[in-house]
């Protein structure tokens, strides 16, 4: 998926929640509007998409409170004290969430700002059917080097 494809999907999801790209684009980027595709191409060039991603209007629409949005919460590893006072390692498996809490957009803006690449952070909120199937079935088994060599030699 290209950067422009990703930006297009992000805009479409925000648009479903009331975001108006044209009005935002004309007030923040360029007064001259030609088309949505041209606007997405402009945003996709360089780091101009940062203006969209960190826009409060966009974030409020993308992470609209109370809406159904499907996203994967990644696996988490941490330690805690048990009832006996011993430190234990806890692994929380990845899971799918569907609802957003009030003001979730503010939290996600902070998290996105802390990421090295904000597009990779927001990308996890665009879950495709293929990704859901892969997530539910678990990771694919890794083939051994011997099996790879046999496949290459045709044995």
Task: Characterize the structure shown.
- It is a single chain.
- The chain is α+β, with helices and mostly antiparallel strands.
- It has one domain.
- It is built from nine helices and four strands; from the N terminus they run αααααββββαααα.
- The protein has helices spanning 3-16, 21-28, 36-44, 49-53, 56-62, 104-114, 118-123, 129-137, 145-153; strands spanning 68-73, 76-81, 87-92, 95-99.
- The protein has a two-stranded antiparallel sheet with strand order 1-4. The protein has a two-stranded antiparallel sheet with strand order 2-3.
- Strand 2 (76-81) and strand 3 form a beta hairpin.
- Helix 1 (3-16) packs across helix 3 (36-44) and helix 1 crosses helix 5 (56-62).
- The longest helix has 14 residues, at 3-16.
- It is elongated, with a radius of gyration of 20 Å.
- Residues 140-155 have low confidence and may be disordered.
């Amino acid at each position: 998926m290209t950067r422009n494809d990703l930006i297009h999907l992000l805009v479409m999801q925000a648009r479903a929640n009331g975001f108006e790209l044209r009005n935002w684009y004309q007030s923040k980027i360029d007064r001259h509007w030609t088309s949505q595709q041209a606007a997405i191409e402009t945003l996709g060039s360089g780091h101009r998409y940062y203006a969209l991603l960190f826009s409060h209007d966009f974030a409020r629409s993308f992470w609209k409170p109370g809406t159904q949005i499907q996203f994967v919460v990644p696996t988490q590893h941490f330690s805690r004290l048990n009832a006996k006072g011993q430190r234990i390692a806890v692994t929380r498996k990845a899971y799918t969430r569907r609802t957003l809490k009030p003001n979730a957009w503010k939290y996600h803006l902070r998290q996105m700002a802390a990421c090295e690449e904000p597009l990779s952070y927001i990308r996890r909120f665009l879950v495709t059917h293929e990704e859901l199937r892969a997530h539910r079935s678990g990771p694919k088994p890794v083939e051994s080097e011997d099996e790879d060599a046999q496949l290459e030699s045709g044995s």
